[in-house]
């Protein structure tokens, strides 16, 4: 399967998203089919890298070619993986790296599973119904 075609969670289901440039603005992810509210859109549990500390992250980035390092820094965020745990530097090196931020709460249509204000989950769910070809947007300020 081409790397820009996303993936599917079961054999019967269509792939939930694909990557493309959004109307000259940026690279983004778009729904390849209608996605229902509450449906898992991305599972980063075994796909995302959690660096043990900032020093390990810096060593990794500085070992990369400059252009690649620039992309990597755009695909990095911080997140707690355990309730009351320390904040970890996270990185995704797969298609979900193109998940863009929504500018308003109305635009955001995918968020991590939330047990509190600061989610520790790497499972991203649709917060509302998402139509086919609609851009998938999140809010990583949690």
**Mean of residue pLDDT?**
80
Name the strands of the widest sheet in spatial order: 1-2-10-7
**What is the CATH architecture descriptor of the largest domain?**
Beta Complex
The gross shape turns out to be globular
Q: Which structural class fits the helix and strand makeup?
A: alpha+beta
What is the CA-atom radius of gyration, in angstroms?
A: 15 Å
Separation of termini? Answer: 33 Å
SSE order, as H and E? EEEEHHEEEEEE
Number of domains: 2
Describe the structure.
This is SET domain-containing protein. Residues 27-139 form the SET domain. Pfam families: SET. The structure is a single chain. Helices cover 13% and strands 31% of the residues. With 142 residues, the protein is α+β, with helices and mostly antiparallel strands. Residues 1-7 have low confidence and may be disordered.
Task: Give the helices and strands, then pairings.
Elements: E1 17-22, E2 26-31, E3 40-43, E4 48-51, H1 54-62, H2 66-74, E5 76-80, E6 87-92, E7 100-101, E8 110-112, E9 123-126, E10 135-138
Parallel strand pairs: 7-10
Antiparallel strand pairs: 1-2, 2-10, 3-9, 4-6, 5-6, 8-9
């Amino acid at each position: 399967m081409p790397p820009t075609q996303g993936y599917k969670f079961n054999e019967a289901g269509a792939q939930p998203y694909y990557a493309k440039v959004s109307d000259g603005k940026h690279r983004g992810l778009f729904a390849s089919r209608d996605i229902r509210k509450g449906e898992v859109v991305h599972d980063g549990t075994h796909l995302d890298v959690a660096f043990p500390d900032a020093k390990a992250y810096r060593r990794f980035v500085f070992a990369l070619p400059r252009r690649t390092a620039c992309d990597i820094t755009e695909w990095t965020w911080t997140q707690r993986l355990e309730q009351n745990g320390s904040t970890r530097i996270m990185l995704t090196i797969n298609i979900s790296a193109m998940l863009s931020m929504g500018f308003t709460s109305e635009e955001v249509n995918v968020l991590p599973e939330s047990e509190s204000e600061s989610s520790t989950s790497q499972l991203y769910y649709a917060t509302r119904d998402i139509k086919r070809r609609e851009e998938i947007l999140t809010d990583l300020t949690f």
